[in-house]
TrEMBL record:
Region (Disordered): 1-21
Keywords, ordered alphabetically: ATP-binding, Kinase, Nucleotide-binding, Phosphoprotein, Serine/threonine-protein kinase, Transferase
Organism of origin: Blepharisma stoltei
Protein name in the entry: Uncharacterized protein
MF-aspect GO terms: ATP binding; protein serine/threonine kinase activity
PANTHER family from the UniProt entry: RIBOSOMAL PROTEIN S6 KINASE
Record: residues binding ATP: 69
SMART domains: S_TK_X, S_TKc
Length: 366
């Protein structure tokens, strides 16, 4: 889970199938059918972050497994992250892209927020990269292309992602990727309001303009793509240093070093993405798709997931967690009993947080 940070903080870590207005249907439904934590059974811990944890859960009365993100309101308020948290829910709720993790439900109790998402059994890209050391160019190219399609969708709806890193790239059963964790994303970007000014992100992948606090736009996402692509093929981020200040100096002053095993196409693509001056950075999606690094790629087929991924994770069952870090999955599930529903908009600062996905509306009404 990403977070905004100051210089002294450490952080690494369907179309609607119903008739009528979907929003009004969801409002009517959610007002009469309120989910609580008691509707789900916790199975395992999948991960932990600044404000809470992610659990593998099963919805009682079904065979459906989900990833449930549980956030503590006190922690969110203490870090002044209420707006970012609400934006995360809004972005996931409105997104309809095959390369973005889907939000299935959201609800709240007096002390906590719950976001129930599709469970990506392949785990984090970070887990597989750590296990392999580095990827082939073919494999990294595939992931980069699917990430670009996610960016294209987000940018078209006025969202800057701002937190691309291997931990936020998830792999599904077949080997396709989806990005998750929109806690740092910026909503409402347009031609008339193109820039954001919050200093946020994860240090290894921060664009220079964020470090300079000059204001930034969607071009920061292409910088972070360059940094992640570099890491996938070399095994480390391009400007990495254990000393954060040294790493920031590297980002602002040091030319990116191309490795001997990089192809000419890759080196050229990375050079154009990792441009310190935003205006010189390759950030036009049409130009990016035509770059030689993606030569021969059928973008239309890719957008429909008709290209076979170069890697398919081993998965034997819905609860096979071999693709997740044992550091988390072996943790005992310690979650306090907090099932008292908090009515949206009445006694809490998180109004309209409840969301019931269309699929569940249909299955309930039928």
């Amino acid at each position: 889970m990403g977070c905004c940070f100051s210089s002294d903080q450490e952080d690494r870590s369907k179309k609607p199938l119903v008739k009528g207005d979907p929003s009004s249907i969801m409002t009517q439904y959610s007002s009469t059918s309120q989910l609580t934590p008691d509707d789900f059974k916790a199975v395992k811990v999948l991960g932990k972050g600044s404000f809470g944890k992610v659990l593998l859960v099963i919805k009682k009365g079904t065979e459906n497994y989900y990833a449930m993100k549980i956030l503590k309101k006190k922690a969110i308020e203490a870090r002044k992250q209420r707006t970012h948290t609400l934006n995360e829910k809004r972005i996931m709720q409105k997104s309809n892209c095959p390369f973005i993790v889907q939000l299935k439900y959201s609800f709240q109790t007096k002390d906590k927020l719950y976001m129930v998402m599709e469970f990506m059994k392949g785990g984090e890209l970070f887990f597989h990269l750590k296990k392999s050391g580095k990827f082939t160019e073919e494999r990294a190219r595939f992931y980069a292309a699917e990430i670009l399609l996610a960016f294209e969708y987000l940018h078209n709806i006025g969202v800057i992602y701002r937190d691309l890193k291997p931990e936020n790239i998830l792999i599904d059963d077949d080997g396709h990727i989806k990005i998750t964790d929109f806690g740092l994303s910026k909503l409402g970007i347009s031609e008339s309001n193109p820039k954001a000014f919050t200093f946020c992100g994860t240090p290894e992948y921060l664009a220079p303009e964020i470090l300079k606090n000059q204001g930034h736009d969607k071009k920061v996402d292409f910088w972070s793509l360059g940094a992640v692509l570099y890491e996938m093929i070399s095994g480390a981020p391009p400007f990495y240093s254990k000393n954060r200040n040294e790493m920031y100096k590297n980002v602002l002053n040091k030319p990116v070093e191309m490795k001997p095993n990089f192809s000419n196409e890759l080196s050229d693509f990375l050079t154009k993405l990792l441009q310190i001056i935003p205006e010189k950075r390759l950030s036009d999606m049409a130009e990016i798709k035509k770059h030689q690094f993606f030569h021969g790629l059928d973008w239309e087929a890719l957008s429909k997931k008709r290209i076979e991924p170069p890697f398919k994770p081993r998965i034997s069952s819905s609860t096979d967690l071999r693709n997740f870090d044992p550091q988390f999955t072996t943790e005992p599930i310690v979650e306090s009993c907090d099932s008292t529903v908090s009515q949206d908009g009445l006694i809490n600062p998180y109004p309209d947080f409840t969301y019931i996905g269309h699929d569940d509306i249909l299955s309930t009404e039928e």
